Amino acid sequence: MTKTAKANEITRNWVVLDAKDKTFGRLITEVAVLLRGKHKPCYTPNVDCGDFVVIVNATQVKFSGMKLEDKEYFTHSGYFGSTKSKTLKEMLEKSPEKLYHLAVRGMLPKTKLGRVMIKKLKVYRGAEHPHTAQVSKSK
């Protein structure tokens, strides 16, 4: 008989990922799997089974090809002519937290469940983070 996980039965761990010299896309897919809980045997699609993820050294990640100069992110406020664009390099220097959240959010469900999952992602520019008491394992 298939056992489905209940929200109160789930144990959540804290995972620290060091982004230094890792490829951005591969790191983001690993984060998405951890946030969804697909690495656990008790995975249930309609329950938040995932762990908390802390990413350190966010600005020292690697990109392949010419993505730093060529890839652009667009924002639009809804008003005419208000489209703005930033290159990947500008996003990485100014707000790497936003860059990571945008990339991971695209791999999570577009529902209330996905919005709960993305809140368990913590991104920090440097090696220090305030979650040392909760951290149980590093990768």
Automatic annotation (TrEMBL):
Keywords: Ribonucleoprotein, Ribosomal protein
InterPro entries, sorted: Ribosomal_uL13 (IPR005822), Ribosomal_uL13_bac-type (IPR005823), Ribosomal_uL13_CS (IPR023563), Ribosomal_uL13_sf (IPR036899)
GO BP terms: negative regulation of translation; translation
GO molecular function per UniProt: mRNA binding; structural constituent of ribosome
Pfam entry (one): Ribosomal_L13
Record keyword RNA-binding present: no
Gene Ontology cellular-component annotations: cytosolic large ribosomal subunit
Presence of keyword Ribonucleoprotein: yes
Subunit structure: Part of the 50S ribosomal subunit.
Family classification: Belongs to the universal ribosomal protein uL13 family.
Annotated function: This protein is one of the early assembly proteins of the 50S ribosomal subunit, although it is not seen to bind rRNA by itself. It is important during the early stages of 50S assembly.
Protein name: Large ribosomal subunit protein uL13
